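Bench notes, afternoon.
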Amino acid sequence: MNRRSRLLRRLIAMALGTLILAVFGTTFTYAQDEVAEAPAAVEAAADEATDLAAGLEALQVSIDSTFVFVASMFVFFMQAGFAFLEAGMIRQTGVVNSMMENFMDAAIGGIAFFATGFALALGTDDGSGLFGTTGFFLSGAMEYVDGAPVYGTGISVFMLFFFQYAFAATAGTIATGAMAERTNFITKIIYSFIVAGFTYPIVIHWIWGGGWLAQQGFLDFAGSAAVHLSGGMVALMGAILLGPRTGRVWGKPPRPHNLAYATLGTMILWLGWYGFNPGSALSMSENGLVGLVAVNTTLGAVAGAFVAMMFAYFRSGKWDLAASLNGSLAGLVAITAGCAFVEPWAAFVIGGIAGVLVLLSADLFERLRIDDPAGAFAVHGTCGIFGALAIGIFGQPELGANGLLLGGGIAQLAIQFTGVIAVMLWMGATSAVIFAVCKALGILRIPEKASTVGIDVYEHGATVWPDILPVPGEGALSVSTSAAGD
């Protein structure tokens, strides 16, 4: 009995020992496995985090690129707006010429900007702060085809080129309104190429390409000075050197021939401005900024239109559509520089002041006997100057601008004034040389005899209304009853 008890106890002890060894041995093994696997798990988690960050970055680049692409199309569509606005504001004998000039601005400007303009505007600076020296004919752009960061953005060179090309075409188009109905088309080809390929890109480098004005702290978010004043100075020099249209009666400018065209053109331009201004953010990562810019753009336009309409009414007793249209454009031009640097109340004030300035500027041109059929300088030149200076007056410190009225002192206003003078001198001087040379060569203006038939017939052998205003020698177009029956 004792022997059996001892054997039983031994068996029980052996079983318990085996169980204990099994449990602790397994636990020890698992602990070893966990310790061995911990670095691998941490490394895998780190890789996942890296992949996630890279994916989010790629997603942001895609969103930003899409945003800029859509904005670029809106800006390009402004070419149609300029074409219809100008066509409506001038006489019907010059509409075909106007459409041709606006259309070819996009083509000629594109060639020039591809060849030299983009490189001079946004190419690598050699340290002078005057112009870029790399990227002619988009050389090297393929290195960024996958959307590598360029010029401080996440978008590719190609996307940035498309956006800036649309701006360059706009700058060249501004001048056509001031030079309408009397400019030799050969001169149009020449100045469109030079402006888009050389003179305008230099200004862009100064302001947006890290040039000397940017280094001084000059602010122009979307181009009151960079684009509109540049184009306005080309328009001013062209109008002065061309001289007035034949038979121009001062104090009684010819009435717009089709205000429906002009209204349609203005609405297209207003729409295009939502690509022009918000698109200049080049990113949707700060949608608060894009929203502010869009709101300020809208307030500038509505204030300009309303104030111009009321100002014209108090002067004439008539609700003037043409004045209202130019008032809205004046407000848009004026708010373009400061749309990211001012609060909404200031945007409304800036637009309202521009609505008065555009009409007073047109009056001054009439007294100076400068013939500007579409009021190009009044809208883009005068209001471009005011828009750039307005940052130094209404700029919000929290938004990166120290406006005089908001405790910033005179410093920002002085910098803005310097930039305005620089743009006026450069674009004015170079444009004057271009047009003076063309005038010396006898190709600036169409012959006076062309005024008897109109520039459309003389330059293009066509009219916009062939059934009403037929080409001489062809007679009015008609459709015979028998032909219609066939």
